[in-house]
Design goal:
- There is one protein chain.
- This protein is of the alpha/beta class and 230 residues long.
- Helix content is 42%, strand content 18%.
- It is built from eight helices and eight strands.
- The protein has a six-stranded mixed beta sheet, sandwiched between helices.
- Helix 1 (32-43) packs antiparallel against helix 3 (73-88).
- The longest helix is centred in the middle third of the chain and has 22 residues, at 111-132.
- The two termini are 33 Å apart.
Length: 230
């Protein structure tokens, strides 16, 4: 089974922000443990006595909020880069997926629904390609707990029973599950990935995006894992 850890970046209701991003990465079920261990080591830089008390989140780390306030900008930014490189070093079958929505382009539609339709269908497409190559796998999406929980679970159920614009979701084993980010390093990594993509599109800051841009799901020179409505 492939687990797709996902999070959003950008506030739907903030008129000062142009973009909403839903992004994350899929990992084969047995490959997440060592990634979480490496992320624990990065968290320990900020609290060696209790790394579990440190949550790796993009905005607080980049801007120096909360526990990160007493660390230098260089140390905080390096930690974000090193966390993104944990994914970069992971198995090639682990892929990035993202929906980047300029909110004004889909208004008055809900950008969350629009982003999730693209996000879920592209992950399903990846699993379908694996199946056709003889590697049949199911998938499940794991989100950080958010106000979108009811909406996303309902959408996922509709996709399986009613369909979406391009067909049906055929390879998911369950509707999305929602985890407390404090308990999951991989959800925290999804947050960093979503933040990296958001910074690129919202602020033109390519520092973090440049690390991961070549890991979006692709085949034959065509990038399937990144959808941009701009």
């Amino acid at each position: 089974m492939y687990l797709l850890y996902a999070d959003e970046s950008g506030a739907v209701g903030d008129p000062k922000q142009e973009f909403f991003v839903l992004a994350g990465f899929c990992v084969f079920e047995r490959q997440g443990f060592w990634m979480a261990q490496e992320l624990d080591n990065i968290a320990a830089r900020f609290n060696p006595a209790d790394p579990a008390d440190v949550e790796l989140h993009g905005n607080p780390m980049n801007t120096g909020k909360g526990i990160f306030r007493r660390f230098t900008k260089a140390d905080r930014v390096t930690a974000i880069e090193d966390a993104l490189k944990v994914f970069l070093r992971s198995h090639p079958s682990n892929r990035l997926f993202a929906s980047v929505i300029r909110k004004s382009k889909v208004s008055p539609a809900d950008p969350v629904e629009f982003a999730f339709e693209q996000f879920a269908s592209r992950f399903d497409h990846y699993l379908t390609r694996l199946h056709k190559s003889g590697d049949t796998q199911r998938g499940i999406i794991l989100f950080d707990k958010s106000t979108y929980e009811t909406t996303l679970q309902s959408l996922a159920t509709d996709f399986r029973t009613i369909g979406h614009k391009w067909g049906f979701i055929r390879n998911f084993s369950e509707v999305p599950l929602f985890l407390d980010s404090k308990a999951s390093r991989l959800i925290q990594l999804a947050d960093l990935i979503a933040y990296a993509i958001f910074r690129h599109y919202e602020s033109g800051d390519d520092r973090f995006m440049s690390i991961i841009r070549n890991r979006f799901d692709s085949e034959g020179g065509i990038t399937h894992g990144l959808y941009v409505r701009d």
